[in-house]
Design a protein that fits this description.
alpha/beta, Rossmann fold, 2 domains, four-stranded parallel β-sheet, binds adenosine-5'-diphosphate, binds 1,6-di-O-phosphono-beta-D-fructofuranose, binds magnesium ion, ATP-dependent 6-phosphofructokinase, ATP binding, metal ion binding, magnesium, ATP-binding
C-alpha cells in the first residue's frame, strides 16, 4: 500500500529528470520549484502551503507504517554520506549504535490474540548514512507559544548535540517565536553560549503567540540559507511547522523541518508525555501543600488552587493524585454543577462539616460554560487564536463565599492560590532535563538522516518520528471514563457530577473501545442508579 511516488532513476538525462521531478512533485501534491521572480509573490499568495502527502505502507498482520517525509521524496538525487558517529570516540564503542533502517515503534502496546498489528511510526535514532555534511549544515532553532520548563534544555542540547555528535558549527537562534524569522536578526548559538541555560526557566530565545506567516518564514529560511529548522512548541506551533515543511517542499528546498513537542498541559496526542509536565506537576504540588496548610489551620478553611489546563486537566489530575490532600478536583473534561442536590456547594458543606477544612484544585478550563451563563462577557482570542478563558478560580471562590454567607453559623475562611506563572517559569527538574536531552538528540539524528516534516517524541517508551498531521489532528484529553480519572474520584471521594448522557458522550470520545462491561457487576451505565446520587459518592455508588 505504498503511496509515495516511485524514485526517479539516477540515469535519466537532465530533461527527463526535470520532467520526472515535476511529475513527482505533482504526485506529492507539491508544485515544482518556482522561478525566482515569481517565487515570493506566489508564496505570499499561498498563505498556507499544501501539507506534505501522507506516507502509508502496509505489512503482514495488519501492520501499518505511518512514515514521515524524506528529502529524497522530492529531491531524489541527493547524495548521502557515512554517518560521522561511526568514528566518534564516545559512540563508536557502542555495540549497536545505529538503529535498523526498518525499525518501527508500535502505537498501541496492548494487543490481544488475533488483533491486528496496527499503526507504527519510524523509530528515532542515528542512521548509517546522513544527507548533510557537517560544514554544510546551517541550523536554526525557534521556541513558540507559552513557556514551559525545559525549553532552554532542549535549545542547549540541540546546539551541543549538533556540535558534539555531527561537528555542526552553524546554529542560529530565532528570537521571539515565529515572527522572529522575519522581524528580528538571528543570534549565534554555540556550545559555550548555551552552556548553563538549562539551569534557567523560560527560553533564552524568547517566545510569542501569533506571527505565523508561512510565506515570510520560508522566505527568511531561504534567504538566510538555513537547511535544518528545529521548531519547539505545542499543537499550534506544530500546525505552523507542518505548513512551513509543506512550503519548503513546494519550493524544492533541501531543508529539514523538525518539530519538538512542547506543552505544559500535556495535551499533545499520541506521545507518552511532554517535557516540562513532570516539573509542572511537582511545582503544582507545592501550591496544593500551601493551600492545605492554610485550610487546615483555619476554622472551616477552604483552599482553592487554580492550575493550568485550557482544554485538558492533566496537571490538575496528576497533582491531585500525587498530593492526596485534595477534596475536589475540577477539570475541563468533566462537567459539574454548583447548586442543588448533588452539586458542588452541597458537597463542600458536607466535607467541611465532616473534616473542618477542604482543598479544591481547579483547572483553568473547567466550568467555562457555567461562568459564561452567569455573567456577560466578550468572546476574545489571543494572537494564536486560543480563546481567552474566564477566571474560574475567582468565580468559584465568589460562589463559595456567597453560598456560605447565606448560612447561619457557618463562617468559612477561603484562601485562593493562583500559581500559574510560577509553575511554568521554573527550570526543568532532573527527569525532564534528561528527557529534553534525548528529544534533542532524536531530533538531530532525524534531520541529519534527511527526514523532514515530523515531530519527535516517545511512544510507548521508544522515541519515534511522527508525521505532523498525527500530532495536530486531535488534542489529548483526560478520558473521564478511564481508570485514571476513577483513581482521582476514589482518592478525593468527590461526586462525579456526571449524567448518563455525559458518560455516554465521554465513552464515544475514547481512543480504544472498552472491554464490554459485565452487566450488573461493573457496568457503570446500566447498573448504577446511584450515578450522581448527590450524596458525595463516586459514580459507582460507593460512599
Ligand atoms: N493552526 C495554526 N496554523 C499555523 N500556525 C499556528 C496555528 N495555530 C497556532 N499557530 C502558531 O503557533 C504558535 C504558537 O501557538 P500557540 O497555540 O499559542 O501555542 P502552542 O504551540 O504552545 O500551542 C503561534 O505563533 C501561532 O501563531
Ligand atoms: O497566559 P498565556 O501566556 O497565554 O498562557 C496560558 C496558557 O498556556 C497554557 O499553559 C498552555 O500552554 P502549552 O502550549 O504549553 O500547553 C494554558 O494552560 C494556558 O491557558
Ligand atoms: Mg495551542
Amino acid at each position: 500500500m505504498e503511496v509515495v511516488a516511485a524514485p526517479i532513476p539516477a540515469s535519466a538525462d537532465a530533461a527527463a529528470a526535470a520532467k520526472a521531478l515535476e511529475k513527482k512533485l505533482l504526485d506529492l501534491k507539491l508544485s515544482p520549484p518556482l522561478p525566482t521572480p515569481a517565487k515570493k509573490a506566489a508564496a505570499a499568495a499561498a498563505k498556507v502551503a499544501a501539507p506534505l502527502k501522507k506516507k502509508l505502507s502496509g505489512g503482514a498482520g495488519g501492520y501499518v507504517l505511518e512514515d514521515v517525509p524524506h528529502l529524497t521524496d522530492y529531491l531524489p538525487n541527493l547524495p548521502s554520506f557515512p554517518n560521522p558517529l561511526q568514528n566518534h570516540p564516545a559512540y563508536s564503542v557502542v555495540k549497536q549504535y545505529f538503529v535498523n533502517a526498518d525499525d518501527t515503534v508500535a502505537k498501541k502496546i496492548v494487543t490481544h490474540k488475533g488483533s491486528s498489528r496496527g499503526t507504527h511510526f519510524r523509530r528515532a535514532g542515528p542512521r548509517q548514512r546522513v544527507y548533510y555534511a557537517a560544514d554544510e549544515v546551517s541550523a536554526a532553532i525557534v521556541t513558540c507559544g507559552g513557556l514551559c520548563p525545559g525549553l532552554n534544555t532542549v535549545v542547549r542540547e540541540l546546539v551541543c548535540g549538533l556540535h558534539d555528535m555531527y561537528g555542526v558549527k552553524s546554529v542560529a537562534g530565532i528570537e521571539g517565536g515565529y515572527r522572529g524569522f522575519y522581524a528580528r536578526n538571528t543570534v549565534e548559538l554555540t556550545p559555550r553560549s548555551v552552556n548553563d541555560i538549562h539551569k534557567r526557566g523560560g527560553t533564552v530565545l524568547g517566545t510569542s503567540r501569533g506571527g505565523q506567516d508561512t510565506a515570510k518564514i520560508v522566505d527568511s529560511i531561504q534567504d538566510r540559507g538555513i537547511n535544518q529548522v528545529y521548531i519547539i512548541g505545542g499543537d499550534g506551533t506544530q500546525k505552523g511547522a507542518a505548513s512551513i515543511a509543506g512550503e519548503i517542499a513546494r519550493r524544492g528546498l533541501k531543508c529539514s523541518v523538525v518539530g519538538i513537542p512542547k506543552t505544559i498541559d500535556n495535551d499533545i496526542a499520541v506521545i507518552d508525555r511532554s517535557f516540562g509536565f513532570d516539573t509542572a506537576v511537582e511545582a503544582a504540588q507545592r501550591a496544593i501543600d500551601a493551600a492545605h496548610v492554610e485550610a487546615s489551620s483555619a476554622e472551616n478553611g477552604v483552599g482553592v488552587v487554580k492550575l493550568m489546563g485550557r482544554n485538558s486537566g492533566f496537571i490538575a489530575m496528576y497533582a491531585t493524585l500525587a498530593s492526596r490532600d485534595v477534596d475536589l478536583c475540577l477539570i475541563p473534561e468533566s462537567p459539574f454543577h454548583l447548586d442543588g442536590h448533588g452539586g458542588l456547594l452541597e458537597f463542600a458543606e458536607r466535607r467541611l462539616r465532616d473534616n473542618g477544612h477542604m482543598v479544591i484544585v481547579v483547572a483553568e478550563g473547567a466550568g467555562q460554560d457555567l461562568i459564561a451563563k452567569s455573567m456577560s462577557f466578550a468572546d476574545t482570542h489571543d494572537p494564536s487564536g486560543n480563546k481567552v478563558l474566564l477566571d474560574v478560580g475567582l468565580w468559584l471562590c465568589a460562589k463559595i463565599k456567597e453560598h456560605f454567607k447565606k448560612k447561619a453559623n457557618f463562617p468559612i475562611t477561603l484562601k485562593y492560590i493562583d500559581p500559574t506563572y510560577m509553575i511554568r517559569a521554573v527550570p526543568a527538574n532532573a527527569s525532564d532535563n534528561v528527557y529534553c536531552s534525548l528529544l534533542a538528540h532524536s531530533a538531530i539524528h532525524g534531520a541529519m538522516a534527511g527526514y523532514t516534516g515530523f515531530t519527535v517524541a516517545p511512544v510507548n517508551g521508544r522515541h519515534a518520528y511522527i508525521p505532523f498531521y498525527r500530532i495536530t489532528e486531535k488534542q489529548n484529553k483526560v478520558v473521564i471514563t478511564d481508570r485514571m480519572w476513577a483513581r482521582v474520584l476514589c482518592s478525593t471521594n468527590q461526586p462525579c457530577f456526571l449524567s448518563l448522557e455525559d458518560v455516554e458522550k465521554a465513552g464515544q470520545e475514547e481512543d480504544e473501545p472498552n472491554v464490554p462491561l459485565v452487566e450488573g457487576e461493573n457496568s457503570l451505565v446500566k447498573a448504577s442508579p446511584l450515578l450522581c446520587n448527590g450524596n458525595g459518592a463516586h459514580c459507582n455508588g460507593a460512599a
